[in-house]
Amino acid sequence: MNNRRFARTAGWLALPCLVAAGLLAWYVTREPASSLGAEPVATQPALVARGEYVARLSDCVACHSVPNGAPFSGGLEMATPLGSIHATNVTPDPETGIGRYSLADFDRAVRHGVAPGGRRLYPAMPYPSYAKLSDDDVKALYAFFMKGVAPVRQANVPSSIPWPLNMRWPIALWNGVFTDSKPYTAKAGKDELWNRGAYIVQGPGHCGSCHTPRGLAFNEKALDESGKPYLAGGLLDGWYAPSLRDDHNTGLGRWSEPEVVQFLKTGRNKHAVVYGSMTEAFNNSTQFMNDADLAAIARYLRSLPGDEQRDGAAWQYQAVSAAERLDAPGAHTYVTRCASCHGLEGKGQPDWMPPLAGATSALIKESASAINITLNGSQRVVAANVADAYRMPAFREQLSDQEIAEVLTFVRGTWGNQGGAVDAKAVGKLREHTGPASSSPIILQMR
Fold it and tell me: CA gyration radius for the chain?
């Protein structure tokens, strides 16, 4: 009797479990619907040209190409906490690329992160941002990749993420929690320029991928300005991408809209020069944006409020010559190694050599960017096909961990800077896990 009752109970319990398992299996393997499924495929030259511009906005070439490789043939290695993944071949080769993708297949991959057959893409592909692309821009991108890019037969490199962490079905659950699949819609009460800027920053520009802090699940903590963490600064790949909000110390609070445009167009302004991951974004993307779009980006970014509690007391310059502080640890290194470019008073040479007085990297508590660029130097900034004449040299072979920690502590505590001390152990850790920047100009070709 008891056995029969147990069997009946187990049967009733098994039924909802089976239903739940079936629903889960359906959810994680389904292909999301595409709004472009029945669209006729257009590839007119004007549409291909438009798609090339959208690809520039989206900086597709930075991940899907490598120096001296064929455009968009993949191969770039990207390290993650779980292992390395490699960017895929997105040329129209039918065997190793996307040549057999329909417009709907392409749409699902770009905006939803789902390849044909239901295979989930790792969110290193910034589809949480690309989800905001308009239908017209997706069509244009498709036209460019199918007709404007030469097919290249190059096999994709598998990831090194070990089993079971390489199972992709959990990504569907991650998407359900942390992404929004709706395209961008214009915000009421904002003008056309602001909305265009919001669209580029949130969508194709995927600025939040670097500049928004991430949660425990490696998710961006906010996807638009409705979330306070959006573009508030984030640590990624050994660099700290600063706030793009109206933060006086750690963001754009001291920048005007024209200065934002100048930075994105030329790679420099009186406040800063592009470095770290932003160098690639400039070399391959922002300098090619038209003036109207740059103005729109500047308008949107300068509308984002800062956070005084997070940012701290507003920086004010305190005049002092490094030569007058030679008794301070790190001062002698600064005078002999840094002052020839950045000046004894930390003011640099505006629009050419960036100031260290008031620099974001000297005001934020996170020291990764300051350490990284001192250890490894900067990549060459290539503007209008002309490489810059000067670059930050690497000091990893000239200075010890302690010497780098001391000189950075000096910089981050002088001229009103308030970033705080740098620990030699932090320098050693980054030294171990990073390498020197290339001294060769690197700009990736689109065709």
Answer: 24
